[in-house]
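Repro case for the chain-ordering regression, as requested:
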Amino acid sequence: MANETKGIPQPTMERLPMYLNYFKQRKNEGCSQISSADVALDLRMTAIQVRKDLACVCEGRPRTGRSTDEIIDALEMLLGCREIKQVVIVGAGRLGQALMDYEGFGRSGFHVAAAFDNDPARCNVTINGRYVYPMREIGSTIRSLNAEYGIITVPDTQAQYVCDILVAAGIKAILNFAPIHLIVPEGIVVKDMDMGASMLYLSNTLAVRAQSKR
Amino acid sequence: MANETKGIPQPTMERLPMYLNYFKQRKNEGCSQISSADVALDLRMTAIQVRKDLACVCEGRPRTGRSTDEIIDALEMLLGCREIKQVVIVGAGRLGQALMDYEGFGRSGFHVAAAFDNDPARCNVTINGRYVYPMREIGSTIRSLNAEYGIITVPDTQAQYVCDILVAAGIKAILNFAPIHLIVPEGIVVKDMDMGASMLYLSNTLAVRAQSKR
DNA sequence: TAGATTGTTAATCGATTAACAATC
DNA sequence: TAGATTGTTAATCGATTAACAATC
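-- result from build under test --
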């Protein structure tokens, strides 16, 4: 898989996609060279942290900084954006449908190959360019696609059930939109997308800032 | 706003919603008392960390652990789930529509009060229970609702433009679904929901684990 | 009482920040 | 060359982990 992912601190690793987005933007604006100090200014970080983070990714040149082309290239390689990874979505409701042709997945190398739903009314049709299969075909479809990534967009009550099916079918990593803690075997990776929690992050950050003003 | 949010370490703060989800689940299963050790086992954390995190929230009783009712109560108070906070969504496309009646917002005290779009075909109608206003009414509507939270679900190219409008209208915190770095004035909080980045987290975690196995 | 579980104080670990020499 | 920016080594800071006394 991806190159020397290891050895890079986890917090740095999680900041890299943000840098990648940022450099792509700057490149679009016609910027071809950029210094850590400038990045830091725009991203509201310290120059030292940016420098240290980016040192993990590729070399820069004293005096001129980094080439946007080079750093974008290096980031995409390091993050594995160039490798195409097959994804299935379980739950073809509104959220699932919205994710079926979400551009951001493609840009990171993820291809939504199929969707599944247990509502016959939503099955055996193509929605937003993805074919929706009935749940009973999930195992065989995942295996024939060689999909390793699953996205869960079913109601909370069904999330664990769906999760078990995905794992049994060979899925290795799951993006979970149900605000439920999933139990998975050792070796399976889960990332929770709890949007309620994200909103709470906002309100609590506001609250903390208000307090520290006093 | 929320109680003594301050003084709680940021990493702990960000784990609290996960605990809340977990305790609600356990309560539904009929569990009324729970020890840090059990929580740790289920959440794949260490008992010490759970104990320390939860000590910030409410008191437990030696020998019996914590009451699920009490801790749920304390967490909801601390996180401010009980206060109703008005939210607007900009971009009534598929993703925006899916979020309009997303249950998880309500459970955390966020009420989606209105949506906006610049496509006349999507305006002046009710979608998933929310009225969609034309963009030109955004300022007045936000002010009359007293909304402080905004969700951006417009195409990347329009995200910064929309962000500026939201800030001008008095929005204090933004959940941003565009994979773009938004520039905001001091004091405004932004949380990026970059789903491509989340998928990359999954693939890179898998890669790191595979490497460390060797 | 004995034992499980807590809260708290101290030790460890790792990330961030600072300092500075290297280099285009 | 001089100066800006880099990479690296050392210092600081804060979170996690460990140890243990307190308590139901």
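Ordering looks correct now. The first helix of chain B runs from residue 10 to 28.
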